[in-house]
Amino acid sequence: MTYTQSHNAAVLSSHSSRTVQNSAAFLLPHLRPTDHVLDIGCGPGSITQGFAKVCSQGRVIGIDQSSYVVGQAAQTYPAADYPNLTFQAGDVLSEDGLPFPDNTFDVVYTSQTLIHIPDPVRAIREAYRLLKPGGVLAMREADSSNWYPKLQGLELYNRAMDAMIRSSGAPGFGNCRALHAWAHEAGFDRSRMKLGGDVLVYADPEQRRWWADGGLGRLKHDTEEGEEAKKQLVGEEGIAIMERDLRLWADDVDGWYSNYQVQVLCWK
Fold first, then answer.
1. d(CA 164, CA 7)
2. What gap in Å lies between CA 217 and CA 161, rounded to an integer?
3. What is the chain written as a DSSP string?
4. N or C: less crowded end of the chain, CB within 10 Å?
5. Do 173 and 165 meet the contact criterion of CB atoms below 8 Å apart?
6. d(C-alpha 53, C-alpha 207), whole Å
């Protein structure tokens, strides 16, 4: 499995802005202090450490395919400060699955991960295996986004990011509205699901500048597969147009960006 956007500073800055409050609010009412929680695709661990605080009497594990990023997470949230929290490397699509027995966790959580996985149903099936009977899988994925004003470079940016993601065989944008269908195919009962969603909006000057800087950073630091997919789609001229219009958008007092997030809870 290849994460096409790499783990450069711009990507990690975006990932580190995620918390249980802004990325797992739909799950929080269902958490108990004693729960054992697995965060699949934990990245820098900013959400995972929030679970460790909420489930202070349980055990929380963050797992990610990148040894580098879990190492960073362990340094940021050390065992001395978070005794019930650990991080480890692992690939949810590996032939042997994740290194945990069946029925281990009360909660499995994943956010902005399945969109990058070539076989999301297989990943969800692995989550089903790891859940205890009665346990809950919480999934949150970006599905679509919109910009104002409508600039050519912003439209190209959305298409380029999608092409980069799809270059690994992953579903990409516009497909994560099928989260519940994927979960049903993986073994979850459709009648034991709760579907929802929310919208992230970036409209303040500071938010626009931060998002544009992150977008520019993603354009300059891709994996080889992602870089090739981007160039094939938009070419060098298109990349220059994206960089220009991201800056124009950030400086536009009326500029805004919205991102629709699909959220699904599934009980085993």
1. 14
2. 12
3. ---TTTT-HHHHHHHHT--HHHHSTTTGGG--TT-EEEEET-TTSTTHHHHHHHTTTSEEEEEES-HHHHHHHHHHS-TTT-TTEEEEE--TTSTT-SSS-TT-EEEEEEES-GGG-S-HHHHHHHHHHHEEEEEEEEEEEEEEEEEES--HHHHHHHHHHHHHHHTTT---TT-GGGHHHHHHHHT--GGGEEEEEEEEEE-SHHHHHHHHHHHHHHHHS--HHHHHHHHHHHHHHHHHHHHHHHHHHHH-TT-EEEEEEEEEEEE-
4. N
5. yes
6. 27
Residue type, 171: P
242, 157 contact by CB (below 8 A): yes
pLDDT digits (tens, 9 = 90+) for 95-128: 999 999 999 999 999 999 999 899 999 999 999 9
Tell me which residue has tokens 């500073």.
9
More confident of the two residues 168 and 175: 175
| Measured CA distances, 99 to 60, 83, 127 (Å) | 15, 21, 12
CB-based contact 187:125 (threshold 8 Å): yes
**Token representation of residue 223:** 């994996």
